[in-house]
Amino acid sequence: MIGISNGPSDIDVQHMNDKAGGDAPDSQAGGGECGDEVEDIVKGILEEIVTNVASDEKSSLESNQTASAISSMPSLPPMSEDELGDSTNIPEPFSHILQKDAFLVFRSLCKLSMKPLADGAPDPKSHELRSKVLSLQLLLSVIQNAGPVFRTNEMFITAIKQYLCVALSKNGVSSVPEVFELSLAIFLTLLSLFKTHLKKQIEVFFNEIFLNILETATSSFEQKWMVVQALTRICADAQCVVDIYLNYDCNLASANIFERLVNDLSKIAQGRQAIELGATPQQEKRMRMKGLHCLVSILKCMVEWSKDLYTNPNMQTNLGQEKPVGGDQGDADSGQGTMTSSGSQASLNSNHSSSNPTLSTPTTPMDNPEQFESLKHQKEIWEQGVEIFNNKKAIKGIHYLQEQGLLAKRPEDIAEFFHKDVAGRLDKTVMGDFMGENEKFNKEVMYAYVDQIDFRGKDFVSALRLFLEGFRLPGEAQKIDRMMEKFASHFCSTNPEQSIFATADAAYVLAYSVIMLATDLHSSQVKRKITKEQYIKMNRGINDSKDLPEEYLSNIYEEISGNEIRLKPTSSTKTSKQASDVKSEKQRQLLYNMEMEAIANTAKVLMESVSHFQSSFTSATHHEHARPMFKVTWTALIAAFSVGLQDCDDPEIASLCLDGMRCAIRIACIFRMETERDAYVQALSQFTLLTANSSITEMRTKNIDTIKTLITVAHTDGNYLGRAWLEILKCISQLELAQLIGTGVKRKFLSNSTTTSSSGNASQGHHNDLLDSGDVARVANLDHKKMASLQEAMGETSSQSIVVAVDRIFTGSTRLDGDAIVDFVQALCQVSVEELQSHASPRMFSLTKIVEISYYNMGRVRVQWSRIWAILGDHFNRVGCNHNEDVAFFAIDSLRQLSMKFLEKGELPNFKFQKDFLRPFEYIMKRNKSPTIRDMVVRCIAQMVNSQAGNIRSGWKNVFSVFHMAASDHDEGIVELAFQTTGNIISSVFEKYFSSTIDSFQDAVKCLSEFACNAAFPDTSMEAIRLIRNCAKYVMEKPQMFKEHTGEQEMPVSEEDRVWVKGWFPVLFELSCVINRCKLDVRTRGLTVMFEIMKSYGHTFAKHWWKDLFRIVFRIFDNMKLPEQVSEKTEWMMTTCNHALFAIVDVFSQYFDILHDILLEDLLQQLLWCVQQDNEQLARSGTNCLEQLVISNGDKLPSHMWDRICTCMLDIFRNTIPHGLISWKPQDYEAYDESSRGDADTLSRDSFPTPEHDTQPPPQHSTPPGSDLTGPASTPDKKSNLKRMGSQHSVASAASTDSKTSSKTIEYHKTAADQKMFSSLLIKCVVQLELIQTIDNILFFPATSRHEDAENLRAAQVGCVYNYVVVWEEDPGMYRYLTVEQLFHLLDCLLESHRFAKEFNSNNRQRDLLRNAGFRGKNKPNLSTQETASMACALRLLFKMYADDTRRDKMESVENRLVEVCSEALQYFLSLESESHRATWKSLLVLLLTKILKMSDERFKVHAASYYNSMCEMLMFDLRPELRGILRKFFLRAGTTFNIVGQL
User: Are strands 1421-1422 and 1296-1297 parallel, antiparallel or unpaired?
Assistant: First the structure.
């Protein structure tokens, strides 16, 4: 036997029998023992028959298995209520006579149960009622004890459909409690054992009977109570609940039974319907509890169904063991045993998942969750479209369905859609109005609708009924007219054989007439009904001017009168009045009877219509079905639970609501339904009264229980809570404040909090904070009695169980999975931020918990910790920068402790987690300007370094970053501690653990550079540079470590280059930064150290490293490219640039063999750039360095490099020739020109405004080269003498002046632009002189020419030119290394410079302009020094080449150039008019004549012949004695050489 689980609270047959027959002896007529005896005998016989048949031996079945096979479902004859057990016309598919007997008995019992009762109140003693009850009891017994044959044989299944279900549709609305209860019991048994065969019947039971009874306002409390009891048993079966959803809510042709059931139960749970019935408070409570119990059971079923998907993070605790309140309080009469319970309660409270219970019936359709979800979605779209349609927006509804692809656009498709609305979802009135419209499309739909109805073989009234049963006729006559016209046309066309109507017009008129007749006869508003005679008379002459047969019209009248034209029965619609409109019990009973009769009739019709309907039933197996089930019902569920918690203080109701919410959260968590989960958690948090807009003074037991539930949820569902952790942790944060009140917090604290809260900080504080809310004021103002009462209520929040449970949330965080712990930490950090936002009273509860969970979770894998620390690190960043120093101090100290713990664990190479968790120290140091906090950060880092240096790996970058920021601080303590620790790292840690710090070597050097650049602490700066020097030593000593270290690289670097990229380059680059940023003494030291490193370790540098290095070195001159800052720039040029240029040349010379190929061009370009600047000192240094570079390395330069140097000199000459001296003109030059030709005295100095800064002192006259040089000759082999200790040339001496100033001058006031231009021209003049001197020094070695000039002059003065011979041990100049072409290049430079100076000196008018403009004060400017110096150098070069026997192949060219240059020089001298100007040529003439006199006779002849006339002309001038003396010797030798006179 397969029955229903028989629990202790089952409603069994015996119980019902006792209830039905317990009073029989007292109520029977006669009351004799004979009656009882007869009844017992009959009862025994029937039970014996049922038992023998229903328990069918298996062996008997097996022997007749073949005969019992039935290929198709039999069609049984319809059951008449008056028929009793007639066995005629019964098909014979049975294999055994007992089966046929059982069938007949079963059918007879069904018929017996349908016997109507007498009108009025039912008499318990009546035979009808007792027989009905007895038949129902027997039917229940048959169904409960049905064996395999009864449950599988199609004859019995059909009998259940056609007889039992129809009988139940009648008895299911009975007002007799016993009958109604037995009907419910039978239905529950059918649902349990036969649901796979009764899919449509079950839908009718739910949709038309039981749920309607719940929703009907006039149904009795007892009736509703029994329905809810039955639903309690249904809701306890997980398989049944899921099957209902799957087969009905996901079926397009079925009603949403599950959704409707939950909505109805939600209303009951909220107490809405019980109030309408005027129930007593006790009844209301019982009903609400029963509704809540059903909802909780449904949720538990869902939890049970999806338990395999759930993972409990806490194996030692669970929901069942830690209920927020006492265990489930089941009703004593809950009847849980009537239906098989799937153990939902147990599954909810179990820790370990188990498989689903074994299904009782095999499934034919496949259980595909995606398919069912798609069907559900499609159904929702249909329902949305139908809802739009029913809201009198038919066109919009149709268009919506068409847009969704569910409905085609042809009129025929829409008409078919109307016909297929078997469930009656479409509003028939709206449908009629739509088809009655006069629009073309509407009429096409109506025509298609009519054409799709088959009227063949039907009489007129039947066809009209068939037509009108699908929609309600519209009220407008025109619409009815169009419909009747189409109906008549289609009826006549489908029934051509009929002979009643002559034309379709007759059918049309008669159809209209029948409509009017039905309205007249059955409308309550028509008082005087039409008679048959009147109706016949009304229809005369309508059949083509003839009458229809009178008998025909009479029959129509009779049929319409007896049977109203009605709509096709569909799901019943509630048209009853609300209970509030019912004035009396009698009126309520009358209305109830009418509704029940309507429900019964509709149910019976529907039951009969589906009795032959075959539909597949899917038994659910997949876990995923619980998700869409919860999705469609969660709003109704949360409404019921919220109302229950809010409106009622009853502990049992609160317990059920909290249990339901706990289950709902579990389901939402399992399926990751974030919106639903957050809504339930938020609702729970609100009922704790700990969050916003809540008053803690109203705290009740249910609120304490809610807190416990929330804690339980956090403990058991933590892996799934996601964002919902925020609400939970907010409540826990506020719980701490509640615990303060519960433990007797002082009033003073509360009062202070109140005062602080109202002082203007509310807008910035944590709005959910109890201390910031008005509750504190209310609490502070409570009297002692109320305060004690509140403390007692709040004291429960401080109970050991809650305190331990809260603590377990944080300690249990170690068991959360990787994603959950991230959500947990993120929420906790957010709550901590809100706690700390209050300026007056920031709280650190959550911050403390953050530190705790960090300790607890320290053992997690690094992948998870990285995600956690990404959040914690950001939070520590914010908290460490908090305006409250106490908060920031606590955060930093906590961070220090955590960091120390992590550092103790160490770190493997190439991991970067230390870098991540130390990064907050950097952030705080950067953003927090508080000296106290910054000092704390530095001390924390220093402590880590001192105690954990051996374990630090990637964290060194953070260490040096913090010290880098500390290095720029102005607080001496911070800088001193940071530098002391940094020095210890460089000196000690690098020695011991260099391999672990090598990745941060660059950061260390950068840090030291920052210390060096702190101008406030010069001693620290010098020491920092020393430490940088030590870093270079580490690079030199441990190059292999750099080669083997890969580390973090944005781009791949070869092994050989790693030493440069990670070692030398950072050191040298940071030194260049020191040079560029610091003051003179520090940058000088930095410059010295940088070049010391280059000189000391440059031999280890690869060639291409030098190129990068010189880019760094040339950065020193970047300051020169910045906008002008006169004072600082002057100092920079006089010191650093000058030093750097010479140091660069020294390094280049030292490593010439390596550098000349790769860096000579860059160096020359840099020198060219320096020379081109409008800065005298820089230009002078550039030329001096060029000279030193060439002199030091000229003997090693190949010919092509000499070409490049010569070209560079030529470029410098040409770029620095001051052409502006000749081309400059004043702005009003024309006026100036006219004035200069007229009276010069008419222009005064007052005519031009003179800016104060333009006035200059008179220039100082410089000593011309070659004048009084009495010092000893320099030693050419000493390298120290290669550098010019001081140049003769300067801006003040660049342009010599005439001895006298013109008496007539016209002054011109120069503009700022003129001043800038004049300054640039003066610098160019200086550069020209320096370049002439440079060429001279390069060719003949420094000071050689000066000594030669001095010796020539001395010889001329004493008259011993022939005896004067300069004797050199060797030629120290670079002359011998240059080719003739290169020497000619240099000669061209000199001559070009000379000719420009000569041109300027000859242009007296331009010189007057410049003098009047104040170019050189009031003196007339000239370029005499440039003129003579360039010519002197050119002559020396030519005479040197002329005397060089190694260049004989070019001697002719040299001789021609020499003659040409000498002739040009002598001619220019003769053309000079100024005595002072001629005086400047003294040394030059002495040089020329001396060189000529030293020639051999042969060469002397050539030159004497060329210059003889010029020499003669010179005698006309008043020459100096020494010049006259040497000129005398020239003429004497000329006489002898040309044999004019004899030998002297």
Answer: antiparallel
The position carrying tokens 């009698």 is 586
- Distance (Å, rounded) from C-alpha 616 to C-alpha 887? 68
The residues pairing with 543 across neighbouring beta strands, listed in sequence order, are: 546
Lowest-confidence range among 338-352, 513-527, 1413-1427?
A: 338-352
The C-alpha angle 7, 13, 16, rounded to 5 degrees, equals 110
Give Dmax over CA atoms of the chain in angstroms. 199
**How far apart are the two ends of the chain, measured CA to CA in Å?**
166
Which of 471, 558, 480, 492 is CA-nearest to residue 516?
480
Q: Is the pLDDT of residue 1326 over 90?
A: no
Cα–Cα nearest to 226, from 365, 391, 91, 338: 338
Sign of the CA dihedral running 837, 843, 849, 854:
positive
Query: Residue-wise over 885-902: b if at least 16 C-beta within 10 A, else e?
Result: eebbbbbbebbbebbeeb
Lowest mean pLDDT among 547-561, 634-648, 1110-1124, 1254-1268: 1254-1268
66-88 residue pLDDT tens: 333 333 334 444 444 444 344 44
Alpha-carbon distance of 730 to 769, in angstroms, equals 9
Token code pair at residue 1401: 């000196």
Helix axis angle, 281-305 to 651-670, nearest 10°? 20
Please report, for the chain, how many H helices and E strands are present, in that order. Answer: 71, 2
CB-count burial class (<10 Å; 0-12, 13-18, 19+) for 572 = buried
Q: What pLDDT, in 10s, does the model give residues 874-897?
A: 999 999 988 888 899 999 999 999
Distance (Å, rounded) from C-alpha 755 to C-alpha 1525? 113
Q: Is 476 a known active-site residue?
A: yes
State the pLDDT at residue 80.
45
- Name the 3-class secondary structure at 468: helix
Is the pLDDT reported for residue 1000 higher than 90? no
Q: Do 511 and 490 contact (CB within 8 A), yes or no?
A: no
Rounded to whole angstroms, the Cα distance separating 109 from 138 reads 8
Residue 637 pLDDT: 93
**1103, two tokens:** 């060639």
Q: Per-residue pLDDT for 387 more than 70? A: yes
- Cβ(229)–Cβ(9) below 8 Å: no
Please report, for residues 388, 1120, 1224, 1305, 1416, the alpha-carbon distance to residue 1315 in angstroms, rounded to integers and kept in the order given.
89, 20, 12, 20, 11
The owner of tokens 């860096």 is 1159
Query: In this structure, are residues 720 and 677 in contact, taking their beta carbons and an 8 Å threshold?
Result: yes
Q: How confident is the model at residue 758 (pLDDT cuts 50, 70, 90)?
A: very low
pTM: 0.67
The closest of 741, 725, 731 to 691, measured between CA atoms, is 731
Check pLDDT > 70 for residue 1544: no
DSSP 8-state secondary structure symbol assigned to residue 162: I
What residues contact 1474, with CB distance under 8 A and at least 6 apart? 1298
pLDDT band at 63 (very low <50, low <70, confident <90, very high): very low
Give me the pLDDT at residue 587, please.
62
- CA–CA separation, 790 and 778 (whole Å): 11
The count of other CB atoms within 10 Å of the CB of residue 707 is 28
Say how far apart CA 203 and CA 229 lie, in whole Å: 19
Q: Measure the CA–CA gap between 917 and 926, rounded to whole angstroms.
A: 16
Kindly name the residue from 380, 383, 476, 698 that is annotated as catalytic: 476
- Encode 365-407 in three state secondary structure: CCCCHHHHHHHHHHHHHHHHHHHHHHCCCHHHHHHHHHHCCCC
Q: What's the CA gap between 888 and 988, in Å, rounded? A: 32
- In tens, the pLDDT along 1217-1264 reads 888 888 888 776 654 454 444 433 332 333 333 333 333 333 333 333
Query: What token pair was written down for 745?
Result: 């917090």
